[in-house]
Every structure is written in structure tokens, then in C-alpha cells.
Amino acid sequence: MKRVLVTGGAGYIGSHVVKTLGEKGYEIITYDNLSSGHEWAVLHGRLIKGDLADKDLLDKVFEEFAPDAVMHFAASIQVGESVREPLLYYRNNTANTLNLLETVSRHGINNFIFSSTAAVYGIPGRVPVEEDAPLAPINPYGSSKAVVEQMLRDLQFSKNFKYISLRYFNVAGADRDARIGQAYKESTHLITRALKTAKGEFQKLQIFGTDYSTPDGTCIRDYIHVDDLAEAHILALRYLLEGGDSDVFNCGYGHGYSVREVVDMAKRVTAKDFIVGEAQRREGDPPILVADSSKIKQKLNWRPQYDDLQYIVKTAWEWEKRLGPGSAPFS
Length: 331
Ligand code: UFG
Description:
This protein is α/β, with parallel strands linked by helices and 331 residues long. It folds into two domains: 3-172 and 223-251, NAD(P)-binding Rossmann-like Domain (Rossmann fold), CATH 3.40.50; 190-221 and 254-327, UDP-galactose 4-epimerase, domain 1 (Alpha-Beta Complex). The chain has helices at residues 12-23, 55-65, 79-84, 86-106, 140-158, 190-199, 226-241, 259-270, 294-299, 309-322, and strands spanning 3-7, 27-32, 46-49, 69-72, 111-117, 162-168, 170-172, 204-208, 220-221, 223-225, 247-251, 257-258, 275-279, 288-289. It has a seven-stranded parallel beta sheet, with helices on both faces. Helix 1 (12-23) links the parallel strand 1 and strand 2 (27-32). The longest helix is centred in the first third of the chain and has 21 residues, at 86-106. The radius of gyration is 19 Å and the shape is globular. It starts with a strand and ends in a 9-residue tail after the last helix. The protein binds uridine-5'-diphosphate-4-deoxy-4-fluoro-alpha-D-galactose (UFG). Uridine-5'-diphosphate-4-deoxy-4-fluoro-alpha-D-galactose binds next to helix 6 and strand 8.
């Protein structure tokens, strides 16, 4: 069976991909510094605690494990934090990916899957946004990922190297058996924040901006279940291993929900009528971000199973209820 090295495999999205890879029989090594990931989240394969800044350790792990492919999730992911600390994002997301790519290149690994983001589009001129829309990020998080996409494009022309870049829209939900899910120290994402408010961790949920030019005045996003996203990674991996060419794919369902619609769903699923306030717009928020996902459906034959906001929120809620104070699940 093929061997896959997964950076950030102890994190939210990475751990769901490790779970899916494991279920399908791949050999896996997770490489993670556990700065925001968790040992308990790695359900299959070995975990090596290591940082992408540590090139010697990376070299050793690549030497010993000799992966057929690399999936790269490890990154900082908060838009607001990236505005306050841009260099941290260029360090963690761009410079560390350069280290990883140098190692990948030195060891002759030719298959690479990259976690990119819809944030590379900035405020798209047209929605649903297609992959060939201009890359015009409006925050350092999006820029730090767009630079990596450029490195990957350049690398493929100089080597036998092939990559798939998956541009995630709003990833949410959790494992159907609530074994793993989002467990950040600080949660800023809408669904998690709403559920933590329902749980009583916050007094109220703030809606950031109610004067957007959308039907109910709040921002619209394309929420995708993390297990459908994990499946997209498996398809991308198979495609590369079977000799497919480098490519870039949007990962979203192709339709969106407003903040108010998500909040209503969170109230319905939790049966809690938590307090909702209205606040200023959050800096760097595009009004509408929805994927045109026809390319991944056509080329990789991606068939999402969980395109259902209620299921997304319900799995996130089942997980949230298991989550203890130290961001670890109660056993
Ligand atoms: N929101 C609120 N209140 C909150 C939290 C969020 O109103 O307490 C709003 C935001 O303003 C935004 C929407 O809910 O309009 C979604 O916000 P999230 O923080 O959940 O997600 P973002 O759309 O900002 O960003 C996410 C990921 C990024 C990724 C982007 C791509 O965090 O990494 O989706 O669509 F780039």
C-alpha cells in the first residue's frame, strides 16, 4: 500500500483525512508540532512530533519513511490573527512550506497535495467563483497561501513534480461518531462559536455586519462538511498516483448560507435560544464566497455525501458536547 506523509495530521482537517486514509489502508505518518493539533486526534498510523522549521528532522523522517506522496495541512489559519501578525503567517505558512518543498524535492517525492483556501480569491468579481478567477487575497493569511501556490506552479516546471492544490471554502462539521472534530484553543469560526454559545461558554453570539448587500444583510458562505473534504483529498491522491497532472480545485458545495441562516440552524439543532447581538463588520470579510465546484466533480468525480447544513451543524454539536475544558474530548 502507498505511503503518505501528512503534515498537520493532528489538526482539525488533517485528522479527518488521516482517518479516511487509514480506513482505506494507506500507510501514514503524521508530522505535527502539536501547536494546535492533538495526539488523540490521530486515529491511524504513527505520529512524529516535529516542526517544519526543523529541516534535519524532516530529512530523517523522509529518509526512513520514504513516502510516495505528501499531504500538507500544517498552517496557521486565522484571518484576523494574520492581519495583526502577518510575519507569523509568512513564517508558518510560506517559509515552512518552502522548507518542506526543499525536503520533498531533495528526496525526489513527486506527489504533493496542498491545503489552500478560498481566501486566495479575496473579494471575487463573480460568484460562484471559478478556479481561474484572479488571485487577489485581501489578508495576509490568503497571501501566505497564494505565494505557496506560486511556488508549486514554478516547481512543477523544473522537476517531475506534480501537485494538487485544494482551495477550501468554509469547512465545518465533525466525525459522524464524534471521535474527532474542531478543538482549537481559540475558536473564531461561526458554527463553532454559535455552538459554544449554545453550550454556555459565551454570553452571546455577535453577528459581524448586517448591512451587506445580501438578502438578509449578513455574509454568505459555502459550508462544506469535513468528511466530504477528506474524500476530495483521497481522490486527489489517487489521481496523482495514477499519473494525473498538476491542478487546482475548489472544494465547496456551490451554494451558500447567510450568517443568520447558520445561527437559526444552530438554535434548531441545539434547541437552545442563545442571545444574538449585532456588531460592526469584521475586517477582511468578503460579502459572498461560494465555490463553483464543477471542476472537481467532473475531473476527480467527487460526489459529496453531506451537503446538508443540518447534518454539518449536528455533527459539530455532537462533537462540541464531548469536548472538555482543555480542548480534549471527555472519554
Ligand atoms: N461570523 C460572525 N460571528 C462570529 C464568527 C463569524 O458573524 O462570531 C461571520 C463572519 O463575519 C463571516 C462568517 O460568519 O461572515 C463566516 O466566518 P468564519 O470565521 O466562520 O469563516 P471565514 O469565512 O471568515 O473564513 C473561513 C476560514 C478561512 C477560509 C475562508 C474561506 O476560516 O480559513 O473560510 O471561505 F479562508
